[in-house]
Amino acid sequence: MENVFIMDHPLIQHKISMLRNKNTGTNEFRKLIEEIAVLMGYEALRDLPLEDVEVETPIETCMSPMIAGKKLAVVPVLRAGLGMVNGITTLVPSAKIGHIGLYRDPETHEPHEYYCKLPDPIDQRLIVVTDPMLATGGSAVDAVRMIKEHGGKNIKCMFVIAAPEGLESLHKEHPDVQIYVGHLDRELNDHAYICPGLGDAGDRIFGTI
Questions:
Q1: Catalytic residue among 52, 105, 108, 208
Q2: What is the DSSP-derived secondary structure letter of residue 41?
Q3: How many CB atoms lie within 10 A of CB 41?
Q4: What is the pLDDT of residues 102-125, one digit of tens each?
Q5: Is 133 annotated as ligand-binding?
Q6: Is residue 136 part of an annotated ligand binding site?
Q7: What is the DSSP string of 125-187?
Q8: Average pLDDT for 137-147
Q9: pTM of the prediction?
Q10: Is residue 44 part of an annotated ligand binding site?
Q11: How far, rounded to the nearest angstrom, does the alpha carbon of residue 136 sit from its chain's CA centroid?
């Protein structure tokens, strides 16, 4: 699918396998999510625009490339998406951070909105939406829709793991959005959980199992 990027880097795959292990504790899980976000962010941000600026080195003055424009906005989907934010800001410390709050109804599996706060002006920034898991795709579809309604145009989404159903849904609804996935899992089960998955990412990041 156009604008869909499935990561194949050995380090990403290795760390995702560690995430899947039910015996991986909260502290290690949290660190792994952050490390994976760094590795995925390196790939996702390879097309950041550059401009030449004058820099004085100890030897001479030269023109050297630096990131251009209003730079970056990281928008985690609460709450699990927060676990990936530090990984992105490690790469781009000047990034602004917004938040989108969505929760999934346990019966219908439909997303419900409860919060949206985005950097202003959002239309001039590259926006990276973070969420460790893309299951049904409902939350991601709604998050991107909310950003677009606020004027966001240049949007990328990053997920550690995804189900084919969610990936297809997000791509169908927002074909203009670049989607980066650490690993494409097999399927959703009857409870809309990703299989083989890694459990509930939010619970495992924040130790609320």
A1: 108
A2: H
A3: 25
A4: 877 777 767 778 888 999 888 889
A5: yes
A6: yes
A7: SEEEEE-SEESSSHHHHHHHHHHHHTT--EEEEEEEEE-HHHHHHHHHH-TTSEEEEEEE-SE
A8: 92
A9: 0.91
A10: no
A11: 16
Please confirm, yes or no, whether 200 is among the known catalytic residues: yes
Which of the following is catalytic: 20, 104, 123, 145? 104
Q: Which of 26, 90, 145, 200 is catalytic?
A: 200
Structure token pair of residue 147: 């950003």
The arithmetic mean of pLDDT across residues 42-70, rounded, is: 92
Q: Was 200 annotated as part of a binding site?
A: yes
Secondary structure string (H, E, C) spanning 130-144: ECCEECCCHHHHHHH
For residue 58, the 8-state DSSP code is S
Integer Cα distance of 72 and 92 in angstroms: 8
Q: How far apart are CA 179 and CA 188, in angstroms?
A: 19
Task: Check residue 186 and give its pLDDT.
Answer: 95
Please indicate if the annotation marks 207 as binding a ligand. Answer: no
- Name the amino acid, one letter, at 182: G
Tokens of 160: 């550690």
Tokens of 59: 């030897």
Q: Which of 126, 206, 194 is CA-nearest to residue 159?
A: 194
Q: Give residue for tokens 């969420």.
A: 131
More confident residue, 127 or 103: 127
